[in-house]
Amino acid sequence: MLARLKRQWQRRQLKDPRYATLFEEMDEEVVSVDCETTSLKVQEAELLSIGAVRLRGNRILSSQSFYVLVKPTRKLESRNISIHGLRPMDVSEGLDADTAVRQLLDFIGGRPLVGYYLEYDVAVLNKYVRAITGISLPNRQIEISGRYYDYKFKQNPGAYIDLRLSVLNEDLQIPALPRHDALNDAITAGMLYLSLQQRGFG
Fold this sequence. Notes:
By secondary structure, the chain is α/β, with parallel strands linked by helices. The chain is built from eight helices and five strands. Residues 29-202 form the Exonuclease domain.
């Protein structure tokens, strides 16, 4: 009930009618999304890359993927480069953040979003989304770590549950793709989601 009221309020606040598609629920598909950024602090973080891929049923639609590099407004620090591997020369020809996020919004439409610690990615994206649309992303969000927690808790209530990505990958037998690449991370999250779905926790 509260979620429905919030969506109705958001729809009234939408300042660009082109993005009414965000409210057209498309539950037959979901979109796994990941962002690489300049900081782990949402307030400071700028986008460096965005990766996303659509999932339908038990399939990852790799032919329907999205990946863009984003040119930050501030100079990259060496500690950031060591984490995500993106150098100034890599992002120098990237899109501006506004254009990149607009393209992402067109890609996801009203599909639910899937991710590993998705809350952070959505919080960073919303800094740009609000400027474009006047609202935060209204899409339903599916958190992989939460679904995995529920899966393990049912097996062994009260036990310590390790939510590190490497642990999830090993336990669910997901191949380890190179980390800190936004599209690879989105695909990994998608594989984890499908694996949990097959176990009744999608």
